[in-house]
Amino acid sequence: MMQNIKGTYDYFGREQAIRQNVRTTLQELFELYGFESMDTTLLNELELLTSKYAGGDEILREMYQLADQGGRRLGLRYDLTIPFAKVIAMNPGIEFPYRRYEIGKVFRDGPVKKGRLREFLQCDADVVGIAGPQAEAELMQLAAEVFRRLDIPVVLMWNNRRFLGEILGAVGVPAEEQLSVMLTLDKLAKIGSGGVLAELTDKQLTADTVRLISELLELDNPGFGQLVEKYKLEGQPGALEVLALQQLIDAIGLGTVCVFDPFLSRGLSFYTGTVYEIFDASGSYTSSLGGGGRYDAIIGKLVGRDDIEYPTVGISFGMESIMALLGERPADTATRSGVLIIPIGGYLPEALVAAAALRTAGIRTGVDTGSRKLKKTLATASSKGIRYVIMVGESEAAEGKLRLKDMTLGSERLVTVGEAAQLIAG
User: Fold this and answer.
1) Which residues on neighbouring strands pair with residue 389, listed in sequence order?
2) How many CA atoms lie within 13 A of 170 on its CB side?
3) pLDDT tens digits for 384-408?
4) 402: helix, coil or strand?
């Protein structure tokens, strides 16, 4: 029996209409914020995708690997970040700061659940060449506007890995263990403090350090100031970065949307500073709707030049998670469907000529086959939210006009094609 591969879907009809609306909203805002479009390769050398500077062990286990006829080891991209870093590394002439966006499919051979597929669309925006908090703040503004337009109340949780590293250093976590401990702390919401502490016992930590981390987890929603005071971190680089970004967030009015979370670190190993994740504010949908952060080291390491700085920060919106929230909403078919032209009798040529003129005027136009009863065709048009229907038959053709029916008002009039275009465009 023919079926789709598990974790892959075909999209059409109402669902595709909603997906396209989300995609259009994202693309319009990316360009409004000054990002350029980019299209990177689906296929990449396995060596690039498995680089120690890339996605981390968990994602590498989920990567689709293959070989071409020449025996070269390849992989399908599992995100849009590493292919983007490759483009920057391969094109030294790009002028910074450089802003790019990309909307494209990525592939992961992981567990399938609601909002998580094996073939899915990612929608990314990245900035290279801005080291301070400006880029993060702009991406947070972008995220807030995206979800405002989609009418999805969200909360953007954020943290700074450098600051979290300073806290871990203060409780005795060795530098070489800090990333591993961060990734465990990131699971706090999923597995609870007991699960986190159980995982920590398998790491190279002293009993005293585990006890101090346990005390950290027992703090009731600790704020930035409380942590700085408790662990004597005032003036430390990570603490200063958090302070600078928090002041900017407050100054631009995003303080209620962007909430500091000292345990957030995200699952990818390449983040170096600020990280953030976006969630449904109601809490009814628990998966992330998007996320990102600062990854200053990847590009320089890919080109083998640790001495050149490529300060980079990005954000990714998860189409499948957004769709899981929007899926129950009605599609805006009225604005999508435009006008339907119905040829009556043998007047298809006249219908097609009129359709061409309306399309030239920028009006979305469909042409019916004219093979069904008119009453049924009008009922179908009404059910799809089509406001205007044009009929052309013997009497209309004899006058060189069209019969324009407003389905909302129930009115009809004879008009020229130019008049029809003006009325429909409003």
Assistant:
1) 340, 405
2) 19
3) 889 999 999 999 999 999 999 999 9
4) strand
